[in-house]
Each structure stands twice: as C-alpha cells, then as structure tokens.
Structure prediction request, 226 residues.
Amino acid sequence: MKITYLGHSSLSIETKDKTLLIDPFISGNELAKHIDINKLQADYILITHAHQDHILDVEAIAKRTGAKIISNYEIVVHFEAKGIKGHPMNHGGKWNFDFGTVHYTNAIHSSSFPDGSYGGQPGGFVIETGNHRLFIAGDTALSYDMKLIPEVIGELDLAILPVGDNFTMGIDEAIKASTFLNCNKVLGYHFDTFEYVKINHKEAFNKFSKAKKELILLQIGENLKL
Ligand code: NI
Ligand code: MN
Prediction:
C-alpha cells in the first residue's frame, strides 16, 4: 500500500489494484501548486465531511476519472445531483468494496457545504485492505470513542490524524488519540495550509518522541509505503 500526501487532508492511497483519493483540496492550496489534479488517478474518492477544504476538487476529478464517491448519505446525494455516482454510508457502518472494507467512524466537528447547506454529520474512515488497516480521522477533536476502533475493528497499522489545532485536535491531543487508538505510528495531516493551522514541526516531533511514539509529516507529493 502506498500513501501519497497531496497537502492539507488530501491523500492518494494505492492498494494492490485500486486508487483511493481522500478529501481532495489541491487546486486551492498554495502549498500544493506542483500537484496537477488532472494527472491524479482515482477509482474512489472518500470524503470525510462537506467543508470546502475537503471537497474542492471532488467534482473535477470524479467527472474526469469516473471515480465513485464514498461518504455520508448527504454528501453522496449532493454529488449524485451533479451526475457523480456514490456509495452512501453512516456512522458505525461498514461495507466490503472491491479493494477492501471501509468503516465510517465518528468525528466531532461540523459539516456544511460551502453554500451553507447541510452536509450530514462529519466522519472518518477505517480502511482494511490486503493485510493493512489504517484509520483516517477526518477533522475531529480528540474523542474517547477512538478507543472502540482497535477494540471492535482491530489493531491499526497507521493512524492518520489532524495535528493543526484550532479547527481540530492539535499535537498534544493527537498523542493521546494515538494511545486511545493503540497505534504508535501517526501520520499527521491538516496542518500548515492556513495561518490558523500552522504548527512548529520541531516541537511536534519532540513531543511525540518524548511519548515514545512516531510522528510522520510528509512533504506534499511525498509517499509512505506500508
Ligand atoms: Ni472541516
Ligand atoms: Mn478541514
């Protein structure tokens, strides 16, 4: 499995034969100018919630690639009205896709479309594919519910957590989340894109290593293999 960081909360996950795109917000990200959305592959686009910084490039990429959306019911309905196919889910549910199993998990956040219309409840995903299981938290606060993930779904290989603070949890809470999730390997996202979410990288790495945990912060375009 190859995970490429596309900036902010955007990721491309290549499994054995499918490509999943997560929360594509690329063309509006000053820091991701070197990523061309017209060259991105996608069989599925997973969307955690309806905020602009998670859906900006969904329509363009889905229409070009024919990718199917996986998200909450309201977001899927919103994109179906634009002629894009989707698979609706809601919290606590799981579904077996051709690349693996997806669970839609709880998040503490909000979820309105840029025009203010209702975007359902925000969520995150646990993706199980091949021998790997990873958690993509979405925009969320630290939550005690995270303890349920390893207990009910199973042990994680990687936790992808927001670390930018202000709109989501920050570094200190991400360390606690990693403990709740029973997963010491954390890929941080949702940081540095805007003034509100800028973080001190050195301090973040120091805090994680003091807690005997691994924090990975990828450059935009850089990848991680599991
Ligand atoms: Ni958000
Ligand atoms: Mn966000």
